[in-house]
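User: Show me a protein chain along with its predicted structure.
Assistant: Here is one chain, sequence first, then structure tokens.
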Amino acid sequence: MRRDPSYEAALTGLCERYGGSPDQRVLAELSREYRSRATRAFEQIDPEIISIVATLREHGFRLGVITDSSDLDTAPWIESEFAPYFDDLVASHEIGSLKRAQKTFSIACQRLDVHPSDAIFVGDGGGNELGFSQALGTRRRTGAPGSSDRWPEGRRPGKLPGRRLAAV
């Protein structure tokens, strides 16, 4: 996978791939709309989720997030009240690898300084992410059912933090 951190660059690449040339005003407007939608997902985080994550932190667990995202997804995350509870964010657009790839789990474990067999991965199970975490050797993998119906406009992070390694 080619690494490209910019949402606008990805849209430009798609246009060019199909013989088009993007209008910069349209790209800017699409970026604004996308960023606005991404920001709303972090405006009202369920207090119960904050409490769970805070408790894990208080007990010394190292927490990380793995996300398939663009630069416009991670910008609001970094600014959210949720981000300080986590030790690291592994974003697909930054590492050039999707969440379901073993490379992504390896990078997350390395950055958290944890062996995969000591990690717990919590995810919604989409894209076979649980299978890939198992292939890497995480001792536990679990889905987070029912989390998708609390997020605006179908935005489905659907993953809750777990010991040392988590996906949101």
